[in-house]
Design a protein that fits this description.
The chain is of the alpha+beta class. The chain folds into two domains: 2-82, Alpha-Beta Plaits, CATH 3.30.70; 106-152, no CATH class. Helices cover 37% and strands 16% of the residues. The chain contains five helices and eight strands; from the N terminus they run βαββαβααββββα. It has helices at residues 12-24, 51-62, 78-82, 106-127, 149-152, and strands spanning 2-3, 29-34, 41-45, 66-67, 132-134, 137-138, 141-142, 145-146. β6 (137-138) and β7 form a beta hairpin. α1 (12-24) crosses α2. It is elongated.
Length: 153
């Protein structure tokens, strides 16, 4: 949680309001702390799956003057940090990530790719000064027709 503008700081009262709203909504809070000099606050939840509902609850409790964002804040104990340990950065695939399904119209994709290849073949033949008669697309490929036997060789 942070103020929507840099002039707005998060107070202990704001943090208390947020944690009370979460408790009233039945969302277990593991811990809550203010950032340095009121620059934001961090509310840790008992379950990661509660983050989305908690975001909505806190946003309603604090209003539009605050920005409520999701975070996977590290839970490295202080004694371990004192030894120089730091959290391991995980890629999206290891930390839940983003899952999406991409549907491709293969017929259109293949036709577009063949059109590109056709243009490239024509350019290459012109560059090499090879005379050809036609270059039609047939059966998922390109058929090259030459003007004479010498060009084909």
């Amino acid at each position: 949680v942070s103020g929507a503008s840099t002039a707005l700081q998060v107070s202990q009262a704001d943090l208390d309001r947020a944690t009370k709203a979460l408790a009233d909504a039945g969302i277990a809070v593991k811990g809550a702390s203010l950032g340095e000099k009121g620059k934001g606050a961090l509310v840790r939840l008992a379950k990661q799956d509660d983050q989305l509902p908690a975001k909505d609850v806190v946003r309603k409790a604090l209003g539009d003057d605050y920005v409520v964002a999701l975070n996977l804040a590290p839970t490295t104990p202080q004694w371990l940090r004192n030894l120089g340990a730091s959290p391991m950065k995980l890629g999206l695939d290891l930390s839940g990530g983003v899952h999406f399904l991409l549907e491709v119209d293969m017929d259109k994709a293949m036709a577009a790719r063949l059109k590109v290849y056709e243009g490239e073949v024509k350019s290459l033949l012109r560059k090499e000064r090879v005379r050809y008669r036609s270059l039609p697309q047939q059966d998922g490929g390109i058929q090259l027709g030459f003007s004479d036997d010498q060009s084909r060789e």
